[in-house]
């Protein structure tokens, strides 16, 4: 195995014992995963996994490889971090992977504040779906992810902490057929294309009707793949504003547009429709230096947002 990506593929396959689930976590197709594993095995000259119909099982050689994976992955990540920050007390580079919701809620604001406050630090903010965010942290391509925290519960190499939570609401253009409807049913909402990032299986399972035109359920991962897959809130807004697509976000994201009559919230809400996100990092690389400073700014930004939303809620209640 010559790259950290190959090491990660073997580790995820060992953990999941299933090509479909492993491919979903690694953000690659199952055929691509199969081809890559075959190339790794051919390079090593051994078979790492047996492949019965029902599961994937490490061979004896695979178990030997597994014992060395964590130290090797840690070595790659530490090497990358040392190269990126040769003078940590003066300057530090870091890469952040944010889910679309977290980026819009607090990520962009905190990142801009960090850039202004610490001009010698050089950061990069990437907006990705939750699977890519987590994969990027695991393979060392990102130093910190801010996305769905529940996704990493069974990943012993990662740890994290809760950051924010807000309700999610469907929304559409003001001329959409559902814009003025009351008591909208799920069957009506799924009859239009949805435009947002992939939805985790645990949420997709809560939708009480077949997804119809909204998208499709991935057979291997169980994730819901919207008909229009976008990674940023700006892309979602463009898709919703230019057709019959339906978006999903915090109602606070589209407050100005709803007040102006350009966007309408759809009259459908379930208690489980919540956006929850947290900070995630490798256990061997807890945030420090410039990244640690950014984490502090991120927490401050979240507190300020919570206070602003609470105040707005109080004003609305009073009105």
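^ Assign residues to that structure.
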């Amino acid at each position: 195995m010559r790259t950290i990506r190959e090491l990660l593929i073997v580790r995820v396959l060992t953990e999941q014992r299933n090509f479909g689930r492993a491919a979903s976590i690694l953000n690659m197709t199952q055929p691509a995963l199969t081809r890559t594993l075959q190339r790794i095995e051919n390079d090593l000259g051994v078979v790492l996994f047996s492949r019965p119909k029902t599961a994937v099982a490490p061979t004896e050689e695979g178990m030997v490889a597994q014992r060395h994976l964590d130290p090797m992955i840690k070595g790659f990540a530490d090497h990358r971090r040392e190269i990126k920050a040769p003078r940590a007390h003066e300057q530090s580079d870091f890469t952040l992977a944010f889910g679309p919701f977290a980026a819009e809620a607090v990520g962009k604001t905190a990142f801009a504040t960090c850039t202004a406050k610490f001009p010698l630090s050089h950061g990069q903010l990437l907006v990705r779906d939750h699977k890519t965010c987590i994969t990027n942290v695991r393979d060392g391509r990102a130093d910190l992810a801010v996305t769905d925290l529940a996704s990493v519960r069974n990943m012993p190499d990662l740890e994290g902490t809760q950051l924010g939570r807000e309700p999610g609401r469907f929304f559409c253009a003001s001329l959409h057929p559902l814009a003025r409807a009351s008591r909208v049913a799920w069957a009506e909402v799924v009859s239009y294309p949805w435009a947002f990032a992939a939805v985790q299986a645990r949420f997709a399972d809560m939708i009480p009707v077949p997804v119809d035109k909204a998208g499709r359920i991935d057979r291997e991962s169980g994730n819901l793949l919207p008909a229009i897959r976008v990674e940023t809130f700006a892309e979602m807004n463009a898709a919703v504003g230019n057709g019959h697509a339906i978006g999903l976000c915090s109602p606070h994201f589209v407050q100005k547009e709803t007040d102006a009559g350009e966007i309408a919230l759809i009259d459908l809400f379930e208690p489980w429709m919540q956006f929850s996100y947290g900070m995630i990092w490798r256990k061997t690389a807890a945030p420090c230096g410039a990244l640690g400073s950014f984490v502090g700014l991120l927490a401050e930004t979240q507190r300020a947002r919570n206070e602003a939303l609470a105040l707005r809620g109080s004003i609305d209640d009073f009105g």
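Residues 104 and 233 are 7 Å apart (CA to CA).
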